[in-house]
Design brief:
The protein has 204 residues and is of the alpha/beta class. It has a single domain (5-190), classed as Rossmann fold (3-Layer(aba) Sandwich), CATH 3.40.50. 40% of the residues lie in helices and 11% in strands. It is built from eight helices and five strands; from the N terminus they run E-H-E-H-E-H-E-H-H-H-E-H-H. The longest helix has 18 residues, at 12-29.
């Protein structure tokens, strides 16, 4: 598989160690090209459109896949929301990215969503022969209490193709991470993201 340029979105204060471990594994196994940069210096007083354009065209411009590392407080961080929104935005200069969600161990979440079809199901979750279709926001919120509203908005869109896995699944077998990044890249152009929600303006 070809390597793809990956932007890693995460809560810097809580989850820096997981980002560093992901980069260590990438160094050992040559999985992706790290395109991550710190978006923390953006002026909060800019308009939503200005923030989105700045992130999409300056910070994310070289990336094609955004990996969102989700811990217990990630959904409350405005910069993570800005990065997810900007990743999903199909700009004139820089096109939309694929989005892959990886839940971290402190969430305690072992459920998952395979948005890329049977190849993903068979490759990443071969032990599961009984897949359940989730249809409502309430069901998603129950399964994924630490995912942001924007991620759940897009899990509800069958054409958004956002997969959710967990840390041990992709780090115990690093080839699974390589596969997930690749299918996320391959399906990105066909993703129909829901971007109706306004961008978060404050942490909570």
């Amino acid at each position: 598989m070809a390597k793809h340029k990956v932007f890693i979105s995460y809560h810097h204060f809580n989850d820096q160690a997981y980002k560093e471990e992901l980069l260590r594994l990438n160094y050992l196994h040559d999985i992706f090209i790290d395109a991550s940069v710190d978006t923390g210096g953006i002026d909060d007083n800019l308009s939503d459109d200005a923030i989105r354009q700045k992130i999409r065209d300056e910070y994310l411009r070289d990336s094609t896949v955004t990996v969102v590392l989700v811990g217990t407080d990630t959904k409350n961080r405005k910069h993570v929301d800005w990065e997810i929104y900007s990743s999903m935005f199909d700009g004139t200069v820089n096109k939309k990215s694929g989005v892959l969600v990886i839940q971290l161990p402190d969430t305690g979440c072992t459920t998952y969503t395979a948005a890329h079809g049977d190849d993903e199901k068979n490759t990443i979750y071969p032990e599961n022969s009984n897949w359940v279709s989730v249809k409502t926001r309430a069901d998603y919120e129950k399964r994924y209490p630490y995912l942001s509203d924007r991620i759940i908005d897009n899990l509800l869109q069958s054409d958004a193709k956002v997969s959710v896995s967990n840390w041990t699944r992709v780090t115990d077998d690093i080839e699974k991470l390589r596969f997930l990044i690749n299918v996320t890249f391959n399906d990105r152009a066909g993703c129909d993201y829901d971007l109706r929600r306004t961008m978060r303006r404050a942490n909570s």
